Amino acid sequence: MELKLSRWIKLWIGLLCISSYQALGQPSQSASFLGQDTTRRVINTSVPFLNISPDARAAGMGDVGVATAPDVNATHWNPAKLVFIPNRSGFALSYSPWLRQFVNDMSISYLSGFYQIDNKQAIGGSLRYFNLGNIQFTDGSGNLIRDFMPREVAFDASYSRKLSDKLSLAVTARYIHSNLSADLLIGNQVETRPINSGSVDISMFYQSNDIDFFGMRSKIAWGFNISNIGPKVSYSNNRNNDFIPTNLRLGGAFTVKIDEFNRFTWALDLNKLLVPTPPQINSQGQIIRGDDPRNLTVIQGMWAGLTYAPGGFSEKMQELMIATGLEYWYSDKFGSDLFSARLGYFHEDRNKGNRRYFSVGLGFRYNVFGLDVAYIIPVVQNNPLAETLRFSLIFNFKEKSAANNPDQD
């Protein structure tokens, strides 16, 4: 990804001084690194890569995951599920080329793992790496100054504990590093710098016992995850600190076992950024309705993000992101999963980013190995997320799960 100075200024001043990802757009549609249309009233945050769906299973179901069947990638969606995974331990590696409609050297990698200490406790961890490609710094004459590779990294550590045989809670601590600027000095005034910060998550998961559904065994599950609760950050010394993408994810899932070989799951997630809605401003840049986010604390910002928008209740409802998906599993006569097919849909209001897409996915399991693949099909033309692929390689160790062994303390 090679940028001359004029385009560099357009991209990075907006990125570093305003701390929003409003770059790499086309004349018809400005698109952020989340694939949003940022020409409308989009809620902008720093380090939005924290909310990108990292794994192929959830991506194939429209980015649902807070209440789906527990697996190793619960470290992102809902760490409270870790203690319910039917294996004692495991890890997974996920990879996705990113925004290939614009560039060919951006990607997201995600390494996750878990271990069940006993039948009531589990720990998990993950490492997320966002590679934004290579950039060449040039002066006004086009002479090369240096090469730079912007990157973002997050490391998570989670602890999950059962409160009963159906309910669990989890807490997660996260370290965040984002280096997008290579310590630039813009206009001899604004000095850019990397971000080093932290955040925490709080999550819950409930899974029912088997219930009868027209003569078929079924289960209901639901959960929530409040993620990325942390301090405001800045890429520069201009004192304009920005919120990180604190997010409330709430959802449920219904699984029905047709027979000993076939089962279906339908899941629904609702997402709401707990970040203030941008204020309404006049042609002089003065706020005419709403609060200046720079004057709000983290707690005030979370409350405002949940309850208030300058456009009233209708605008607040527009900020809800809806994800829903179906998953089918075929199992062998011993109850081991072999093959899955997935279909999903993600919806974001056209005034709040306009990410609307279908997704499809496939999954395969053999012994301790698993492979998941997902593909995005946008509803909106010229969407930067078009043709996005995700791959996940999973290793689940067959040692009997502590979560399913009541004799183990």
Write a brief structural summary:
This protein is mostly beta strands.
Outline the structure in words.
The strands form 4 sheets. Strands 1-2-3-6-7-10-12-13-14-17-18-19-20-21 form a 14-stranded antiparallel β-barrel. 41% of the residues are buried. The protein has one domain: Porin. The chain is built from 5 helices and 21 strands. The termini are far apart. The radius of gyration is 22 Å and the shape is globular. Strand 4 and strand 5 (144-148) form a beta hairpin. The chain has 409 residues and is mainly beta. Helix content is 9%, strand content 45%.
SSE topology:
Layout: H1 5-16, H2 56-60, H3 74-77, E1 87-97, E2 107-116, E3 121-131, E4 135-138, E5 144-148, E6 151-162, E7 167-179, E8 185-186, E9 190-191, E10 195-207, E11 211-213, E12 216-229, E13 247-257, E14 262-273, E15 280-281, E16 287-289, H4 298-307, H5 313-318, E17 321-331, E18 337-347, E19 356-366, E20 369-378, E21 389-400
Antiparallel strand pairs: 1-2, 1-21, 2-3, 3-6, 4-5, 6-7, 7-10, 8-9, 10-12, 11-12, 12-13, 13-14, 14-17, 15-16, 17-18, 18-19, 19-20, 20-21
The CATH level-2 architecture is identified as Beta Barrel
Identify the overall geometry: globular
Instruction: Describe the main β-sheet briefly.
Output: 14 strands, antiparallel, barrel
- The CATH homologous superfamily corresponds to monomeric porin ompg
What's the rounded overall pLDDT mean?
85
Give me the strand/helix succession: HHHEEEEEEEEEEEEEEEEHHEEEEE
Helix-and-strand structural type: mainly beta
Kindly give the count of domains: 1
Give the distance, in angstroms, between the N- and C-terminal Cα atoms. Answer: 54 Å
CATH class group:
Mainly Beta
Q: Tell me the total number of β-strands.
A: 21
The amount of beta strand, in percent, is 35-45%
Radius of gyration: 22 Å
Spatial sequence of strands, sheet with the most strands:
1-2-3-6-7-10-12-13-14-17-18-19-20-21
Percent helix among the residues?
under 10%
User: How many distinct helices?
Assistant: 5
Low-confidence stretches: 1-31, 405-409
| CATH T-level fold name | Porin
